[in-house]
């Protein structure tokens, strides 16, 4: 299985971005196990986009900031590009260096639109 494939043993972090609640429970469990087991690894970061759209991610981030304002944890004036970026799935400290598509298409197709602004493709 995935745990025995060398990912855990070779200092790699696995992160899953997207809405995992849409997946079957057994797959959610496997995702939880591998992400917990690799969360403190410092080598390569493998981001898996599963049930993911940029539209959903940007909506979720916007909702998070709106909730922060409504609960009094944020002022509207605190909201800036840096804060918005910090509530996305992939933070700027882990910017996308390379985007590989597995088709002939050269468009992003609603995939990490915010994060891929400077990525090579």
Description:
It is a single chain. This protein is of the alpha+beta class and about 120 residues long. The protein is about 30% helix and about 10% strand. It has a two-stranded parallel ribbon. The longest helix has 17 residues, at about 55-70. The radius of gyration is 16 Å and the shape is globular. The mean pLDDT is about 80.
Cα separation of the termini: 30 Å
Q: Supply the helix-strand structural class.
A: alpha+beta
Mean pLDDT: 82
Coarse shape: globular
Query: What is the beta-strand fraction?
Result: 5-15%
Order of helices and strands: EHEHH
Bin the helical content.
Answer: 25-40%
Total DSSP E strands: 2
DSSP helix count? 3
Indicate the multimeric state: single chain
**Unreliable stretches, pLDDT < 50, 5 or more residues?**
none
The major sheet is characterized as: 2 strands, parallel
Strand order of the largest sheet: 1-2
Cα Rg: 16 Å
Features:
121 residues; alpha+beta; 2 strands; globular
TL;DR of this structure?
With 121 residues, this protein is of the alpha+beta class. It contains three helices and two strands. It is globular and about 45 Å long.
Write the layout of secondary structure elements.
Blueprint: E1 13-17, H1 25-38, E2 45-49, H2 54-70, H3 81-86
């Amino acid at each position: 299985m995935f745990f025995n494939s060398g990912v855990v043993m070779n200092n790699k972090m696995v992160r899953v971005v997207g809405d995992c609640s849409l997946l079957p429970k057994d797959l959610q469990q496997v995702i939880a196990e591998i992400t917990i087991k690799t969360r403190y690894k410092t080598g390569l970061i493998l981001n898996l986009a599963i049930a993911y759209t940029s539209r959903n991610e940007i909506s979720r981030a916007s909702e998070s900031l709106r909730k922060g304002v409504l609960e009094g944890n944020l002022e509207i004036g605190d909201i800036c590009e840096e804060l918005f970026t910090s509530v996305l799935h992939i933070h700027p400290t882990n910017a996308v260096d390379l985007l590989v598509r597995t088709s002939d298409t050269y468009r992003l197709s609603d995939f990490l639109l915010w994060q891929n602004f400077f990525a090579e493709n």
